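dumping this here so i dont lose it
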């Protein structure tokens, strides 16, 4: 009898627990439904109370707590002031932390840690935070998970804070340059990633017509180009912020002082070599010393290119070209190969060796089809050669049609160059023969052969 009573009590207790669990589940679902619907309708004030209830009662219930919660708290921050605003800012920082705790597998550490730091930076006055505190926040995020710390704005803020600390005498020059290199390398990785994605949508045919994409693909291309534009902007911003702090007068003594301690560190040599090249400090003996040491320690495409540069400076053009081509052969990554080829091409362009320059620009485009700036460079060379590449005034100016065609290709392969591409094309077209001149010549629709180094044909427009 006692056993039956005990079993009955146990069953009743279990039933109550299931009932309570079902009741709690229904309550949580109902609360989630209420605040999410309010949030979707952008009625964030109405959403706040049920959001907070579910967040406090069952923070592990659903990721939507954090998805909509961020919007709700953003609204509260925007529409409050004083101590209330500070409380909402701190609560959003806390929400990011809670998301990482309760949904770790769905929360990218670097991304959300940087998000939290960026929020605190934007409201640093309200939070009374120092540049050093904010820098430590970003630095911790970057060191914890650099892979997902890739928001362009946050990367720029991170570096800007380092510059502020350097200018205030709180960070040494070496740390400033190292941080610049680390963040620049991160940006370059992201640019490479999105460039490779964009290259999948660059048409294989070499025409100036706009590529035809499905709405889905067009959306992807728009996203990739948006990221590329943002990374390009912050890269330029970092260079401006660094400015003369990294000129040859500052770099040479620093690298000379630290050379012995780092001469067997490949990464240090690589960064020093790149920095001296970028800042045009290649005439200093230290650049030669670093390049030779890096080449003996770890030969690479970069060292081969820099040796070629040194050979060219000493007048050994044949040897220089040998090393330039070696650099191309050593590089296995198409994006990096394209960069080297573009640098080689630009060197020939500056010397007026347009035929060789075009050859290397075209190789750069083969490696990286979305490198629109190579098309612009070729167009510029065509335009500057117009007077030397025709038998008469008409055929000389016909070269500008070819230059315009080449310029339009830049916008076709790189949407971020669309405006520049149109401007170049319009400028060149304006310099080409007019309709009345075509009429007088009577050659509308015919093809003109362009001689000299260009060696191309161009069709005269129909009237």
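and the seq i came up w/
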């Amino acid at each position: 009898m006692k056993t039956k009573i005990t079993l009955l009590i146990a069953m009743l207790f279990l039933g109550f627990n299931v009932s309570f669990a079902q009741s709690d589940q229904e309550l949580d679902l109902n609360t989630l439904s209420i605040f999410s619907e309010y949030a979707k309708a952008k009625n964030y004030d109405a959403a706040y109370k049920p959001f907070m209830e579910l967040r406090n009662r069952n923070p592990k219930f659903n990721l939507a707590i954090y998805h909509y919660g961020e919007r709700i708290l953003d609204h509260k921050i925007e529409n409050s002031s004083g101590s209330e605003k500070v409380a909402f800012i701190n609560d959003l920082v806390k929400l990011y932390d809670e998301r990482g705790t309760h949904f770790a597998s769905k929360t990218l550490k670097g991304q959300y840690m940087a998000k939290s730091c960026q929020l605190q930076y934007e409201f640093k006055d309200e939070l009374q935070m120092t540049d050093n505190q904010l820098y430590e926040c970003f630095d911790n995020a970057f060191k914890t998970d650099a892979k997902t710390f890739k928001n362009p704005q946050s990367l720029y803020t991170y570096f800007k804070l380092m510059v502020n600390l350097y200018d205030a005498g709180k960070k040494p020059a070496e740390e400033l340059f190292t941080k610049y290199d680390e963040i620049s390398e991160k940006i370059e990785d992201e640019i490479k990633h999105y460039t490779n994605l964009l290259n999948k949508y660059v048409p294989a045919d070499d025409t100036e017509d706009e590529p035809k994409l499905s709405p889905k693909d067009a959306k992807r291309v728009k996203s990739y180009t948006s990221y590329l534009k943002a990374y390009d902007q912050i890269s330029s911003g970092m260079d401006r912020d660094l400015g003369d702090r990294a000129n040859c007068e500052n770099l040479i003594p620093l690298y000379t002082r630290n050379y012995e301690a780092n001469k067997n560190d490949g990464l240090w040599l690589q960064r020093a070599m790149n920095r001296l090249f970028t800042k045009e400090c290649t005439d200093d003996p230290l650049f030669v010393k670093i390049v030779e040491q890096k080449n003996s320690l770890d030969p690479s495409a970069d060292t081969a290119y820099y040796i070629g540069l040194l050979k060219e400076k000493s007048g050994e053009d044949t040897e220089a070209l040998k090393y330039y081509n070696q650099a191309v052969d050593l590089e296995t990554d198409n994006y990096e190969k394209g960069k080297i080829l573009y640098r080689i091409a630009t060197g020939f362009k500056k010397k007026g060796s347009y035929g060789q320059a075009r050859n290397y620009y075209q190789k750069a485009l083969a490696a990286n089809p979305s490198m629109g700036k190579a098309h612009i460079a070729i167009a510029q060379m065509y335009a500057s050669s117009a007077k030397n590449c025709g038998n008469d005034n008409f055929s000389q100016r016909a070269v500008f049609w070819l230059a315009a065609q080449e310029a339009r290709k830049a916008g076709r392969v790189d949407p971020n160059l669309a405006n520049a591409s149109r401007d170049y094309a319009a400028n060149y077209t304006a310099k080409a023969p007019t309709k009345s001149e075509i009429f007088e010549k009577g050659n509308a629709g015919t093809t003109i052969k362009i001689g000299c180094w260009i060696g191309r044909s161009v069709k005269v427009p129909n009237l």
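Residues 370-463 form one domain.
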